[in-house]
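Deviation from plan, reported transparently: D-malate complex.
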Amino acid sequence: MLPIFMQKTFTYKNEEISYSCQGKGALVVLLHGFLENKSIWNQTTRFLSKNFMVVAIDLPGHGDTPCLGYVHSMELMADVVNELLKHLYKRKCHLIGHSMGGYVALAFAEKFADKMYSLSLVCSNARADSKEKKLDRTKAIKLVKTKKNLFVEAAIPPLFNTEQKNHKRAINKIKKMAHDTSIQGTIAALSGMRDRYEREIVLKFAPYPVLIIAGEKDAIIPVQWLKEQSELPENCVLEIMEDIGHMPFLEDRIMFETLLMRFLKGV
Ligand code: MLT
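Because the crystal trials were delayed, the predicted structure below was used instead.
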């Protein structure tokens, strides 16, 4: 049975931003990826909340948080995270971002470095989209406008490494989240990711510890990029999860939780 956490909201730009909260201790903020929502972190929340106050937020246009505009830039979403900290009266957090959530975490770290205990990137990276990737995003935006279902059905299965294990249940769960994400939310996130800035400099000058978790078989963020980027910070731990794709917390939950807890306890 999946745990049900306390659902709360705060207001930002006249909209209700939804988050869940569990546990006591130093604040850990979890940022989900594209087409996901805060519930993707339910198991991680349950585990980390033994030692930390764990908050998972629905980023704009995802889950129960409405759209804030037609483009959700990484900076806009970082401002929402900053507002969350203010709302909780917390000065600092351990920030953990999966994929698009990692792009948001980097934008937050750039603006608010003094509010970070640590940064964890899960299958995410600090580079901007290549020219080809930007074109793919623009094509995806066109497709989503008329055939979002097709886009979702094609986009979700490659997130998993299905060579090793059948991830049918997890794939269906993510597809449901993706189908529940509105067309405007999907397009706003695609536009924001396409137009995001490169932030390797944020990693290079990170004054806090950095964890990078990479999936060896990740088809979205190649492990080689993460090997290279893990050389940038002075204090960085790189964990490469063997035979894992883009969804380590679903593909090997126990290993993922162990790596994360070890890092957070060591900060
Ligand atoms: C995600 O999982 O958040 C996205 O696949 C990231 C991306 O498309 O760059």
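The chain has a mean pLDDT of 97. We consider this an acceptable substitute for the interim report.
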